[in-house]
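We emphasize that the prediction below concerns an isolated chain of 480 residues; any contacts that depend on oligomerization or on bound cofactors are therefore not represented. The input was used exactly as deposited, without trimming of termini.
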Amino acid sequence: MFEDKSYPALLKSALGRLPNSLDKREGSMLWDGVAPAMAELALLYLGLDFVLQAGYISTAPREYLLKRAAERGLAPKAASAAHFRAEFDCAVPLGSRFSCEDLNFVVTARIDELAYRAECETPGRQANAYSGQLIPIDYIDGLTRAELVELLIPGEDEEETEAFRQRVLDSFQTQAFGGNQADYRVIGNDSYEPQKLTDNVIAASVDTGRLAYVTADHTLWIKEQTDPPKRVMSDVIATEIGYNYVFAIKSDHSLWAWGKNEKGQLGIGSTEPSDTPVKVMDGVRRVSSDGGSRRVAAVKLDNSLWVWGNNYEYQLGTTKTDLKSTGMVNPYKIVWTPTKIMDDVAYADIGPLCAVRTDGSYWSNYLQPNGKLTQVPDIKVALDESIVGSSTTAPTTPSTPVIGTASAHTAFKDVRDNDYYAEAVQWAVEKNIASGTSATTFSPGATCSKAQILSFLWRANGSPDPTTTNPFTDVKPTDY
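Result of the prediction step, given as a token string:
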């Protein structure tokens, strides 16, 4: 900005103010007196130029960019560790450490019987391409095989200066709920018209400049403002994103959460944040969150309604009396873990809390002084049969196939062509082994009872006649 204030220019200007009758040559008394002062003045202009550059977000060096960004509550995204699925031939203790080439990994959680989540101890993208044999750092009795088999969550390097600078600049155009046109800008695009982002999306959720979506291959992606989408989890069927936190429902209907947790919105029994997915509960069909208020509701496969998070003024539909037995500190303000408040719920949403029960009645806690869900008279909701049905419903004789739109293999809308079990479902229906929970739904994530499993096996073997007497008192001749 002060390019014209260089030392030569300043010296020339100062000497030019003196009469030409005086000796102004280099080495003269006048030159020796003026030159040092102009050198100091040139340094002052350099310092002033730096101050001006550092004061603007568009030109500030990283150190000062961080200070300006902090005024808006922003900070660079920290480097994150890569998380892998690791498989072993015996059980290993959590906290066990392994090496793979030049990086070390620690076992942080169990996924199934011999599979665990392994986290790289070095944050960043470096580990993302790693796979193969793991070498135990500490001796584990009986272990002969250890292997990294799948990248679950990619590691990320610390956010680069220019990417962070652009995110800070973008934050001035995406103020939440300000009523301006910029508040409704399409994420990642300067257009105010809908723009196509990707194909084959089966679920999506958005909150304050962040978008989460699930593609048909059951991969969860998250996109923040103008950043490219990032793959964060596999085997996901639904998602819900809130204010700096995320929920994901996996194909086994387990619910996972991660992110900020200042009001207990993750449902993990504390207000500690989590950078990695933490399992909240099993058997979840739907989850809903009120992002800014940090309140969450979930409906399970057994049609029970559960809530947790910020309970200021009882917005979660639960009161002081309901929580006396929890033993938690300050139960009026936070419901620390998922708490059941109602059965026979087909659908629920939050902000304010409302629910549709399996009989079609509509319930809400809006303007209720105690926060309790109260039935709203004269409202009846027509429900899809697949939502109302219980996960314990007995198998029935297959109905006549109905042509569906989701899969070429079956008539069921919840069985897609790229689902690994699509052909198995088609075979089971054709062989009269199993049927759907309705003419258009199979409910592939529903839990089977022992009676149902045995019925499927019996039908798959041609329904043979029993050759022994039934010894069980809880199985009647009239049972299917």
